[in-house]
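pinging the channel bc i need a second pair of eyes. not urgent but kinda urgent?? the chain im working w is below, pasted from the shared doc
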Amino acid sequence: MNDPIALALSTGIADLLAHPDTAPAAATAEGTRQHLAFGPIGIALLHIERAAHGLGPWQRVRDWLAAAARRPFTSGADSHPFYGAPALAHVLACAAEGLPGAYERDLDLLDRQVLADVRARLDTAHRRIDVGQFPVLAEFDAIRGLAGSGGYLLRRDPAGPVLRSVLDYCVRLVEPITHDGDTLPGWWTLTGPSGRWDDRFPGGHGNTGMAHGIGSVLALLALSAHRGATVNGHHEAMRTILSWLDRWETNTPQGRTWPYWVARDELRTGRLTPTAPRRPSWCYGAAGLARAQQLTALALGDPSRRAAAEGSLLGALTDPAQLRATTDAGLCHGFAGLVHLAARTASDASPETATQLRATLPDLLSTLLPPDAASEEASAALVNSPVGPGLLDGAAGTALGVLAASSTTPPCTDWDTFLLIT
């Protein structure tokens, strides 16, 4: 579709974030400087994609990268896909797509550091598996873990040995672990969903989400298989994760949904604790998991599962109860994320479902910019909101999320690969 509302909102936000000196202070705070989710490199990503589309000047990109790079970026154990050198590498790789030949030296240095860091993380993870311990979420998830790192490697070095090593790790991760008489999936963690010990989760939990759970691993395996990068046990690992999701799915009149996580008591009884309808976001819920399963179905050549996954997303985007549970604008768990997921999923869907998915976009966009609201006012409200101007929850991510709905062409860069949806 070519939606002028989406373009107006994206442009309004980008103009308000044109330069670090005139942006809200949160955009350049030292605590956010290296963070893709909150700081200047995430905002630079918005300007990179818009410049690649011909919608804005490259000078804005240079200004935001300069604001971020006044001091060195963290590498090693304290870095991860959303923080430090790996996060900067993702952003510069997108800039190089829009400006071929740019940032080559910087990217070469960053890629070598990323490879070294991933190798070290893999060594630690395999030692953990060897002694039968449970992982922490940050070992494997999309935000801080090896699934997120694998997404970057798939893009930068898809035939390389380190990506294959990440995929080998993913295959080992899904092997079951026996603990206190229970057979648990290999991605079970003894903490709560926050990654810390939580009295509400005695015995831990199995996280299904795309941000912090096994959904990210499924998506990485699917995307890799689709590009011909597979390892021994690759397809079996995907089917193991799918079986887990099938076991815990809930069928509603609007379609299938999945819990954000499964607690130990739920595992033992085989029954989920009833909850009110939850938001169908990228990070947790039906939208992100539907896209992951669509990608997996395409990789496995499974038309029935593909149709079911696409139907689940369509159901989530038209279910008043799930949409009422969605209360913010952002990319991670808000309406901009739903808009972008709908557009991305439609691009790979059957023609009929693709039309239906695209038909949901005007209503989703109207929550971000009601017909009677001025785009300037809506943009300013988002930029100055308490969640801030950043990428994951804030205004820059909202502007990027709706951009696909403003054009009939796909994104010009791979900016959204950090979401593991493409």
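so DSSP finds 19 helices and six strands in the chain. and The longest helix spans residues 104-130. — does that match what u expected or am i reading it wrong
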